[in-house]
TrEMBL record:
Biological function: One of the primary rRNA binding proteins, it binds specifically to the 5'-end of 16S ribosomal RNA.
The keyword rRNA-binding is assigned to this record: yes
Record key words, sorted: Ribonucleoprotein, Ribosomal protein, RNA-binding, rRNA-binding
Gene source species: Dictyobacter formicarum
HAMAP family in alphabetical order: Ribosomal_uS17_B
Similarity-based family: Belongs to the universal ribosomal protein uS17 family.
Superkingdom: Bacteria
Protein name in UniProt: Small ribosomal subunit protein uS17
Assembly behavior: Part of the 30S ribosomal subunit.
């Protein structure tokens, strides 16, 4: 009997937590994590044109607070509305839904290995 009552209270607690939080949540992909404790998340949605009835993709960028700098580019994340944290940040990271592949752009790898190599290639191109 004790196990049933604890299970009911856990379910009730979960329902109460969902009921209390009226904040909007969105799922999107991280496109930038260059700033400290800040990520830029792109959320894509499909809309239908009101006259032509054609479906098109609409993207919106959100600046979100990432307290532990745990996100990397390409991660699929869930963000939630919050109070204004800075000029642009009005969202915070809730969870990382799926980790990205960890693919890093070639320019960034070259710059880490040898910063002079990138300067030389730019000079030779001129």
């Amino acid at each position: 009997m004790t196990q049933q009552s604890s299970a009911i209270t856990a379910e009730q607690a979960l329902a109460a937590a969902k009921k209390l939080s009226r904040r909007q949540q969105k799922v999107g992909r991280v496109v930038s994590n260059k700033a400290d404790k800040t990520i830029v998340v792109v959320v894509e949605s499909l809309k239908k044109h009101r006259i032509y009835k054609r479906t098109f993709k609409q993207t919106a960028r959100f600046y979100a607070h990432d307290e532990n700098n745990s996100c990397s580019v390409g991660d699929l994340v869930r963000i939630e509305e919050s109070r204004p944290l800075s000029k642009l940040k009005r969202w915070r990271l809730v969870e990382i839904v799926k980790y990205g592949s960890g693919i890093v752009p070639v320019e960034q790898v070259v710059a880490e290995v040898d910063p002079n190599l990138r300067e030389e290639s730019a000079e030779s191109a001129e």
